[in-house]
Amino acid sequence: MNYFLIAFGAFFLIFSLLISIIIRMENKFSAGLKFFLLFLPLPLLFFLAGWYRFPYQEIIGILLISATVITGIIILFPSKTNKFQNRSIPFNRIDERDTMFSRKDMFPDTKHFREYYVKNPEKKAKDDLFRELPGLLKPGTIYYNRLAFAAANASFITIERLHSLVMGNITNEAEPVNKKQITRFIKTWAKKLGILDVGITELKEYHLYSVGGRNERYGMEVINPHKFAIALTVEMDYAMMSTSPAAPTVT
């Protein structure tokens, strides 16, 4: 009996159980069970190799451990190469008036409606089809739920009301700051507010629309007034998102 191989098997068995439990805590029972069942052959292989005596047991055990460790290093430790470094930089910027969010807000017999479809007549037939439908969060949709859709609509209204406050007033007094210190402060503050991940990047022209297509910026050239931008992510509730396309998805 090779206790070293058995110990390795016990370690991987406990490891697989812990990972499965963590996945289950994220309300992903099926994914946790699949991970455990797929990972289970590895500790069993170590148990069998350590329990029975057979020729070249030590050599096979070393090869088995080496293969497992090397595979783990390859999977768990990221390489230093940037997988995005070969991505091409966009040459063209997108006109916001061409997006679905802008086109859905246009109404027949308005100036913006007439001007847009005179320039883009090929899009009118398809756009008229979705205008015949009830629309987002409206009665008559397949999964309409009065309470859930009212709650979601309240969130959209709140965001719209806050839009005019986003830019704020710019002070005329510039104050020198330490880059590392201000970056650390912004990231810490963001996570305190509930942000999952946050990063700061240089803001390029191709990150922005070329021409505005909604509200007061409609038809106006978009000029980049900032040097940096803050990118952030917020975790969605897995249980609610899994109900898609039912009402809880948007609440």
State the gist of this model.
With about 250 residues, this protein is mainly alpha-helical.
The general outline is elongated
Q: Based on DSSP secondary structure assignment, what is the total number of beta strands?
A: 2
* Average residue pLDDT: 86
Largest sheet: 2 strands, antiparallel
Radius of gyration: 28 Å
How much of the polypeptide forms β-strand, as a percent range?
under 5%
Task: Count up the helices.
Answer: 10
The separation of the N and C termini measures 58 Å
The largest sheet has its strands arranged as 1-2
Features:
251 residues, mainly alpha, 2 domains, two-stranded antiparallel ribbon, elongated
Describe what you observe in this structure.
By secondary structure, this protein is mainly alpha-helical. Helices cover 48% and strands 5% of the residues. The protein contains ten helices and two strands; from the N terminus they run H-H-H-H-H-H-H-H-H-E-E-H. Strands 1-2 form a two-stranded antiparallel ribbon. Helix 1 packs antiparallel against helix 3. The chain is elongated, with a radius of gyration of 28 Å. The protein starts with a helix and ends in a 10-residue tail after the last helix.
